[in-house]
Write a structure and sequence with these properties.
Layout: H1 2-9, E1 17-20, H2 23-34, E2 39-42, H3 49-59
């Protein structure tokens, strides 16, 4: 995880590396932040279909009725 994060961070100084929010991920985040690598914590569970529908509903503007 650390090796991949460092390789991604080396691409650009504006790169932000996503790290899973699990025990090993939190350890990696603390190490990477000490090294100056920007990190983003992400949920460890994969979103299911219901989460996709919820996200899609929020991302889609509501329909307006013309009447």
């Amino acid at each position: 995880m650390l090796r991949q994060a460092r390789a991604l961070a080396a691409i650009s100084p504006r790169m932000v590396v996503k790290i899973p929010a699990i025990n090993d991920g939190f350890k990696a985040i603390s190490i990477l932040e000490k090294e100056g690598v920007a990190t983003l914590r992400r949920p460890s569970s994969k979103p299911g279909r219901s989460c996709w529908r919820l996200w899609r509903a929020r991302a889609t503007p509501p329909l307006t009725s013309t009447g």
